[in-house]
Queue: 3 jobs
Job 1
Amino acid sequence: MKKFTLSLKKSVFFSSCLVLCVFSGFNSAEEHTVTIQQLLTKYHDNDALGRDVKRFEINVTNTGFCRYRKVFNNGKQEYFAFNLSRLKSMDYYGNVERGELYLRTKNDDVIVQTRNDKKGDIDSMGTYLVIPLKNINVEQLNELSLNFKQVNESLLVASNK
């Protein structure tokens, strides 16, 4: 009976270790969205926006929404948002010092809103979002692209369930 109990304990121990190892090897969508938000915020180029911009906000949610908001000194606000499941491609135009990241969607999937503008409030749709970046190297751009793909895939799998 002691051999059976010892064998049972060993098998339970190894099984729980195996389960722990398997689940610790996978990154959740939440980890990818946090990484995307951190990279975009860290390398955002405030100088490219000009002195008229008081502040900006980049928010990537666990549900897969990417939001980019600019608030100008005169009170005007520009707001862009899209679901990462609609992301088609990511293009970077520029060099290590300064460039623009284009996040392109499959159709008119980017919500574009302008508030407190002299021309009036405008709501429209677009096919891409442009985020100015600076001091970002190829490895970081590749990491960003990989995280976008991981989130996109996990959102598509979740939507098909």
Job 2
Amino acid sequence: MTNLDELDKRILQTLQLDASLSNQELAQRVHASPPTCLRRVHRLKKEGVIAKQVAILSPEKVGAGLTAIVEITLDHQATEHQIAFEQLVAKEIAVQQCYRVSPGPDFVVIIQVADMAAYHALAHRLFATQSNVRNVRSFFSISRSKFETQVVLA
């Protein structure tokens, strides 16, 4: 874990809300000089605290309006089988998140696709054709009341 001082936390909180800010704008918002701010951001990237900066799209505006939350149970839960499943889903761009969980199913996967036909094709590829997948339980979002990407900074 990286030790973060108050300036680091202000920088991170501000970037979590809007990573498109110029260094000058960021420095003004966090009350630091631009060179200090730039050094801090570079250090936070180098240390892996800032994993990446992306644009977050509105799924329904780009034709990916179906969200599926899927529980997967494997037949064999040995580490190598779990890693193999993680590697399989990592190749699928529609799989936005994959979590190993306990207790209950082995994995919970968040999938974003265009429609039910696209989900069916993906489910066939990822689950039905895999001999180690024992059980799949899918839930489909009818409304998203909250979506955040921020991490709480203590």
Job 3
Amino acid sequence: MRILEEDRTVKVGNYEFGGDKPLVIAGPCSVENRDQIIDIAKKAREKGAHLLRGGVFKPRTSPYDFQGIGIEALTYMVEAKQITGMPIVTELMDLAHLDYFLEHVDVIQIGSRNMYNYPLLKALGEIDKPVLLKRGFSATIKEWICSAEYIAKGGNTQIILCERGIRSFDSYTRNMLDLTAVPIMKKETGLPVIVDPSHGTGRRELVGIMSKAALAAGADGLIIEAHTHPDLSVSDKEQTIGIEELGQIIHQMTAL
């Protein structure tokens, strides 16, 4: 049973997910400092990116990996938005920060690990704010749909779904990017669906080609990890592309 009776779009500022044109969300895996995120935002905007992403809180498998710099990072993202006009997307992990996110964040992201955090999803169902719901790395299509329904059941149907790859037996890529999920989820939910080729592959050299494949599959947009100095990124540098390549992907997308 579809979440919505009719296909819908999700508006974020002047942009519309699920409309006639695919959108690109771009930025670093993690906000490292003020100068870094503002510089990336300016250059990503110049290349045609529409929304700015950046990790404020970083859920990591290892407790010894960089965990993000927290609310301080969000203040830098807000400043980057003021300078560039780019709406901001970042991940919420704790309901204690929800009020602050409601005030400052344009799209609240729920990451792969929190797709099953049902109390968090229920709370997001009661707000008037777009939610970007990533697929869990071991989630079936049905489980992903049910997570979206937790949000929609509360009244918030401003949901953008994100295919970001699922765990498989092959370790050549970080995950297996399941592009069949794009037409399936659009059909089964009526919601816009975007693709994350960065997490979906974990390999910088595959981001561009899988971006084109995602758009060919009908994706309503892309979320891409991009950095002015990708080799110096404090997290996920193997899958982070440079700003010039980001511009090439957006140019190709526009041509398509």
